[in-house]
Amino acid sequence: MIFFLLLLVGTGAFRLPEDLPVDYSGYKTLRVALGSDELKDLVVLMVENEVISIMDEGLGDEIDILVSELEYPGLLDSLSGAGASYQILSEDVGADIEEEKQELLKAVPGVFDFRNYYAVKYQHSHLDALVARHPDQAETFSIGQSYEGRDMKVIRISNDLANADSKPMIWVDGGIHAREWISSHTVLYIANALLSEVDTGLRSQVNAMLDKYQFVILPMSNPDGYEYSRTSNRMWRKTRRPSGCKYGYTRPDGSCYYGQCFGIDPNRNFDADFGRKGVSSNPCSDVYPGKQAFSEKNTQAMRDFLLKHKSNLALYLSFHSYSQLFLKPIGFDYNPPKDAAVHNAAGAAAVNAIYQTHGKVYKNIRSVELYPTSGSSADWIYLQGVTNAYTIELRDTGRYGFRLPTSQIIPTGEENIRGFIALVNTL
After folding, report:
1. Is position 393 annotated as part of the catalytic site?
2. Are 268 and 192 in contact (CB under 8 A)?
3. Is-above-0.85 flag for pTM?
4. How far apart are the first and last CA of the chain?
5. DSSP 266-316
6. Nearest to 324 by CA among 375, 257, 398, 220
7. 171 in helix, strand or coil?
8. Is-contact 195 145, C-beta < 8 A?
9. Which of 139, 393, 414, 415 is catalytic?
10. Tens-digit pLDDT profile for residues 32-41
């Protein structure tokens, strides 16, 4: 049932003028079991009326929602009347965000230690510092720029870097959705582990991989949205380019009746069954795919680089959060793809290695089993002929959601570098 709700995700609930930070004090997140068509219709109606906003689509007949303190009593009455079961994931989202802000203030200037979440400029300077310490194994370059002019900086890592062009390429990206802060930092952790800056006990394993492959790593693929989520709206998901008028209603003079919308969902903006499933035609929606595929500068940059190297691409891996999932192609078709056996084995190896690290269970499923979606990066590159194309949804399973505490950055990195090694060893 979930895919019916996705059409309405983020259709404008709780939005303020763009120059005012969003205050989530008193907001709660709940997980609601969608046990009947009546309940599904009720949730759809509440989203349409901006009573609630959908956070994460969950797994099976469940959905995570965000509700304000003002709307909460009415929501409970509605759920009770429909006989719905639910659980509260966060009693006060604003308090969680404030706690996170206090953690950000603890960051030590010039220190990148995976004990905090860092701004884009510090992520990029950290990549440059890695190159300075490992000039024979690493280099950085930009594959393009975002709408607001930020670099899409990648780091390439391999032994004998000068001759690495002939090696098969492994691509890793994170940060495609702005609010998923743990994704970029997990990708950065993997880059550090490949250079034995962290998890030095894995040195022999990663060294063998560096002999065989070149790793091209893009930790931050949506830098504009990420920075906006740090300064103005912690729950921001999309890019930041103006995207049209809310509900498409425009006055004769070109102004908007109900407000200007911003941003495109970059993981609905790739040319894979574009614009058909798990999307919305409302430009203010969190899952608005844009008017056409690759309308965004960041998705264009990824497309151009990956197409240039697709004949040499052995693995595409994109990190997201949350839900603890290993997602396999394809997201818009219930029929298993021809490479399903390869995908199943790859996912099994990765989630087993993750579990062996800290006991965290990541489910190995096809992405369409989560909810049908069109326009994802992994599906697009799979359709270009890259057999191994996957998405990993990181910690947690809902208590903190996108606001994963800084204390979990390192453990998340530790389990996922081991899952990554196991995945690469299946190629």
Report:
1. yes
2. no
3. yes
4. 35
5. GGG-SSSSTTSSS--S-TTSTT---SSTT-SHHHHHHHHHHHHHGGGEEEE
6. 398
7. strand
8. no
9. 393
10. 998 887 887 8
